[in-house]
Structures are given as C-alpha cells and as structure tokens.
Amino acid sequence: MKTLIKNILIVLVFAGIIGCELEPIDENLVTFDDISNFPDKAEGILLNGYTGLVNQYSFSEAATDDAVNNVLNNNYKRIALGELNAQFNPAARWGNYEEVFWVNQFLDIIEKGQTQWSRDTLTNTMFEMRMKGEALALRALHHYYILQAHAGVGQSGQLLGIPYFTEFIEPDGNFNVPRLSFEASVQAIMADFDAALELLPTDYGLSAANVDPWYSNLEDFDYDKYGIVNDNYFDLRISGRIVKALKARLALFAASPSFLDSQGYYELAADNAAQILNTIGGVAGLDPTGNEFYATDANIQSRESLWRASIGGNSTTYERRMFPPSVNGNGEINPTQNFVDAFPMLDGTPISESNTYDPQNPYANRDPRLQKYVVVNGTEFGGGIINTGFGGGNDRLDSIQGQSTTTGYYLKKLLHPEVRINNDGTAQGKRHASVYFRYTELFLILAEAANEIAGPDHQVDGISARDVIAAIRNRAGITQPDNYLASITTKEAMRELIRNERRIELSFEGHRFWDIRRWGLPLNDTAKGYFFDGNNYIELPSVEIRNYQSFATYMPIPNSEILKFSEIEQNNGW
Predict the structure, then answer these.
(1) Which residues contact 349 (CB under 8 A, 6 or more apart)?
(2) Is 571 exposed, middle or buried (0-12, 13-18, 19+ CB in 10 A)?
C-alpha cells in the first residue's frame, strides 16, 4: 500500500510541472496544500476516485462454468486450470486502495475548509456537500470491491473482511492494519454509504418541487444556485439513487450463504432495492429493451442503465476480440454447453424437465435470449453465417488454435450487432458504454432477497420475487401464461429459478464468478461443448476440466501484502 501512496504523490508532482524544459523549480511544483487553493485541482483529486470502477467487460466468465477462453495464456483461463494463488490472481482488487486514498486525500481538503468552490456562500456550501458525499460514496464502493474479492475465512478460522481506511496516510505512515471482521467491514461500508446519502442529491437535475430536504432546508436556499451545483450536467456522477442500489448489492452479498447467511441483511437488500424500484413504477418500470442494453444507441441511453460512464465514440475493440474468425474476429470467449443448457424452452420449462426438447434440434423453441446472447451453429452474425460444425471453415470447432471456438459457440452478448470488420482491415464501428449498475440487477437483488425472507410471494413494498421473475421472463419472450413459474411454490424451487434467471440476464457482465462463490456452489464443474458432425449433434463432455483448490471460494490476499504487513491475516489455504 505504501507504493500506492508514492504513486499518488508522483502523479501530483508531475501534475504541478507547468512546462519546464530542464529541471522544475519550486514555484512549478504543486503540493497538497497548494491544491487546496485551486478548486479545479482539488476536484481533480476527487475525480481519481472514479477510476477503477467495475464495468461489464471483465470477461471473468472464462473462469466459471459459463465460458472458455480460447487464448491459451489468458489469465482467467490460467486460474481455472489451477494456477490461482496468492502471487497470481487476475481477480484481485487490492489495488483499489489507491482510489480509497485519493478520496481520503480529498476529504482531508474538505475538512480543512481551505478550498473555495464559489464566492457565493450558499453555492459554496452546496458544492462542498455534494462532493463530500461523492467522496464518501466512492470510498465505500472501492472498499466493497476489495471486500468482494478478498473477504474470507482466515487462517484463524474467523470470517474476515478487510482493512478499512478512513484517512489519508503518508508513505511513512502505518499501513500495518489488521483486517476487520467481515461484518464490521460491511458495517463500515454501510456507514459511509449512509453518510453520503445525507449529502448527495437523489438525482441530478431535479425540479424545484423535488429537491431533497437537506438542500431545500438550507438557509436562504435558492433553486437557481442549486442548479449550478446539481444540474443534470453531473448525471454520470454518483447520486443518492446509485448509493441506495449499491447498499442493496452490498447487503445481498453479505447475506449470502458463504458469508453471514443473514435474514437481516436480506431485508436490508430488499428494502433498499424496493425503494428505488418503486420510483420507476415497480415491475412495470422494467425496461422492455433492457436485456439488450448494449445493442443500439437508444438502448445504451435507455433507463436500463442505472449508472454508466459516458458513451464513447465508434469502436470495434470488443468485436475484434469476440467475433468469429470468418467475420474477422478472434473468437476469444466461447460460451459453454453448460450455459446454453441454462436457457429454458420457449414455454419456460427447463430443458431437463421438458418433453419437447430435442438434442438433435437443440435450438428450436428455446428461450429467445439464447439467440440474443450466443452464436449457435447456423447463426447469422457480424455480416456472415456462422457454422461451428462440419463444413464451418475457420469457424468450425478447434479449426484455428486461439481463434476458433473450443465449445461450439461464440459470444454475442455485449457486442454491437451492426459492427462490421472488413477483410481489408477497415471497420464500421459503433458506440459502446461502460455500465456499472443495471436496473435488471436491482430487480434480481429484490427477487433473491424477498424470496429468502419468506418465499416466492412475500412482498416488499408491494413487489414479490414472483412478480420480478414474471416480468423478466415475459420481457424475454417466454410464452404466456408462464405455467412453469406458476408451478413454483417453495422457497427452494424459487431460489433455483432466480439463480438461473440471474445467470442468464447478467451473463458475461462479471457476476457469475462472484455469484458461485457467495452461493457456495461447486467451482470445478467441467466445461462442456456441442459439435455438429454433419449428421448429428454430439456433446463434448470435457472441453476444459477446472482445477480450483477446495478453499478457492474465498480468494487470497496478495502475498506481497502478507509479506510486508504482519497484521494482515491470509485467507485459509493460501
């Protein structure tokens, strides 16, 4: 962690060099104290807290039962095959402490009260409120990322969380801080989120009638001045709405079987989710295009994205990685047969219980999301027909090492369907955006939590797990009435259905890797494939055999931190 602080100081020094050709002189170096006197520079420290946010493009599914990566030295492939250890862990997030220290430095600036954001007293107060709220929320969020990746049962046998830092520490300061208990870590994150909620606007660009009381009750409140501070120009920054959604996500994580298995945290998750969802009309507010939030400019800008980054310019980055080779991609992520089998029949019945599923016509009368998310044999995609079986050329299974599918499938989800990559190297790119939180995830948080509280029909602020799953499956195109859903009457059966819907709806967005751990599911399910030999479809039972240690439910603390800091306890087994 000392290295992180040194990096922060180096960045600030270079930011202060205003154009020296040889050696900088003292007047050209900006210190932390100097920055306090320059609002734009002080805000720049806060904005560093927006780096390191987790979006949908990790492709960690290659280390789960949902996908195989065809690049032999891919880091997630390596850990799935047995290389995960305290020295090598591509899912580590210990580095997010850098963002924690950035926002702690900003909070020090706020506490000193030396920075003037506006000459007007009211406007200055509101700027300070909002940005302090942002900093507290971001500090909580980065601690959550670290907790998700490194919480676990320690060598002492106790369920441990992480060190929680609420102050900036100089490089020569004390970083040798023990991990809090898991629940104490959760409570510390919640406390920061709650403090942020008292300072942030619920949304940016609110009308005068809807301004939050902690702003409207300020002495001599003026809506025009409020607009300067909290206009919708700031829409992509963290808000009270986003913080409540993050609280729901944290509470569900804490409540899960591998951690606290707690009714109280399920209730907290459900309550926070329901509060937000009822502001968009409950299940009626489920975005009809939300399951293809990446597919068009209109979908990217739709209400499905509860929190996203700005929309980038035209690009082909992910399509070049994922498109099949015949349309000039590298076919990197290959969904498994395990994942394909998770999609029910069109009437909503799991294929394992359906008397109409035909393994020799496997994609007929299936959940329409299958064709939206996976390139199956015979799919038109990327400007060509993709045949992964006999006669498929470069798209055929195992045709070109490192490019052709290893499972019989290519990825379609997250890729813009109108991108074209031409044979001459030119391309027609499309716009993409990093998404940090989708409303569909919030609906699924409510469904999971409400069901764990009291079963399929337990309502939280008027919304039940059955209501949510019905709306999601209806949007997907499952034939109505959904008789399979109607047949679900127990908490246990609904739990399995919710987990399956979450697996499908949030697929390839980085959730599965953590979900199977918080649920305590097996990590070593063998990745399977499917191949058309010209006459028949043949199951490939062992495309990739997974090799996680028995204790890999809980991920390791980086070994470098254990060696440096005697107070940090390693998770058991690592």
Answers:
(1) 484
(2) buried
